[in-house]
Amino acid sequence: MALEMKVPSPGESITEVEIAQWLVEDGDWVEKDQAIAEVDSDKATLELPAEASGIITLKAEEGDAVAVGDVVCLIDTDAENPNGGEDSTETYDNPGDEKGEGNAGPDLDQENVKKKDTGEKASPNKETPSKGSTQKQTQDSKQSYATGSPSPAAKKILSEKGIDAKSVKGSGRDGRITKSDAENAVPSMGTPGAGGRGTERKKLSMLRRKVAERLVSAKNETAMLTTFNEVDMSAIFELRAEYKEQFKEKHGVSLGFMSFFTLAVVRALDLYPDVNSMIDGDYQIKHDFKDISIAVSGPKGLMVPVIRNAENLTFRGVEAEVKRLALRARDGKITVDEMTGGTFTISNGGVFGSMLSTPIINPPQSGILGMHNIVERPVARDGAIAIAPVMYVALSYDHRIIDGRESVGFLVAVKEALESPIDLLMDNDIEKALEL
For the chain, which terminal residue's Cβ has fewer other Cβ atoms within 10 angstroms, N or C? Predict the structure, then answer.
């Protein structure tokens, strides 16, 4: 029987996805729940798992836009496994495990282990392969395919260029050669002439196109204005130097800057609730919760996962959630639900060395705080010049709903909290605030 696999709905309001990459080839044997494709929506990249075991027939090409509910492949569930193995649901871990290492089969011969347990002597020279060796063969077959194998589109491009796939280093999952790798590959003899003059035409992913659309929309449809300030980070540096090792040993996460900034933003939003609101036609919608979006760079581009109800989190809670979301974004496991519904955004361009920027609002939010690199600069203290670690911060806001008083007051409140964290963020009890 041929099972029709249709595109599932990745989230509310999403009607179309794009086949970013097939993880299997036409005619391959696939196991139930094995990841067979990566699909891009306008909000995230998701893995498509096989709904049954069998021989797969692909019905869409990489780069094709397909509607939710469309058939993208067929799985012949009556076909026999050419590798002779059994259903991997009994012997293999989920390919989308936390480490992203694909199927992790057993290291021991299961038949021999079984016979050892029952006291029966194993026969290693028996001609009929044991269940464990069959499983290992199936695993080895999958592993050899997953490592360094080109996708169908990449295979076609390499063939047209006359390039051996073995000479191309893949950048995809488990070393898979992607379409982009194939397009950028050049023959080993090089290009004659004084220098390369090649060009590449590459279709933007659905996620990147949506990001571009939203950024242009934010610039065109909001009265965006940016205000700046500077923060003396000395107090935070001293706290981290004294407590970061103890904090990490106790909680298993580092005491970074994001927890200080997130809690400073939560405090400032309490003082200036207009910044934690959005405009909807002729109405202003205010939120009594603080869902803080954090802009992170993922393998598919900019992603903005959300820290829910940040007002209820401690330093440990914020750092643990930031780490969890960042790892999921990096590994391509972030979901649509984890990136929707934020009320305010924090963007840290400083990790890339940015000194100053004007961040663009993330609609329908009305404000975004930009963090930047920390540089030792001369500052005035008690009438004297001192050297201090200073960060420039920027608040971009929608002037249609937030006035200058609120915007400037909000940024000053953030500055005050970061320069006096013990008083304003820790209630003068460092060990209690850090849960040490």
Answer: N
Which residue matches tokens 């599932």? 8
Active site residue 403: yes
- What gap in Å lies between CA 260 and CA 311, rounded to an integer? 13
CA distance 246 to 381: 31
Question: Which two structure tokens, joined as six digits, stand for 79?
Answer: 């076909």
pLDDT in tens, 87-100: 443 333 443 443 33
Choose the catalytic residue: 403, 423, 427, 429.
403
What's the whole-model pTM score?
0.60
**pLDDT tens, residue by residue, 130-157:** 444 444 444 444 444 445 678 777 887 8
Q: What is the spatial distance between Cα 391 and Cα 156, in angstroms, rounded to a whole number?
A: 50
First to last CA, the chain: 60
Using CB atoms within 10 Å of the CB of residue 319, give its burial: 0 to 12 exposed, 13 to 18 middle, 19+ buried.
buried
| Backbone dihedral angles phi then psi of residue 63, each to the nearest 5 degrees | 95, -10
* CA–CA separation, 113 and 151 (whole Å): 37
**How much is the mean pLDDT over the chain?**
81
Query: Buried b / exposed e across 100-132, counting CB within 10 Å, b at 16+?
Result: eebbebeeebbbbeeeeeeeeeeeeeeeeebbb
391, 350 Cβ separation under 8 angstroms: yes
- Domains of the chain, CATH where assigned: 1-104+131-145 (2.40.50.100), 147-186 (4.10.320.10), 222-433 (3.30.559.10)
HSE of 132, CA atoms in CB hemisphere, 13 A? 13
Tokens in use for 287?
């939120």
In sequence order, what E strands does 115-273 have?
Answer: 224-232
Q: Are 77 and 52 in contact (CB under 8 A)?
A: yes
Q: Which helix (H) or strand (E) holds 393?
A: strand 384-398
251 is catalytic: no
Cα 234 from Cα 128, distance rounded (Å): 71
Three-state secondary-structure class, residue 40? strand
* Residue of 64, 97, 399, 423 marked catalytic: 399
Of 319, 284, 326, nearest to 305 by C-alpha is 326
* Residue 329, CB-side half-sphere exposure with 13 Å CA sphere: 23
- Rounded distance between C-alpha atoms, residue 24 and residue 6, angstroms: 16
Report in angstroms the alpha-carbon separations of 317 from 119, 253, 309: 51, 10, 11
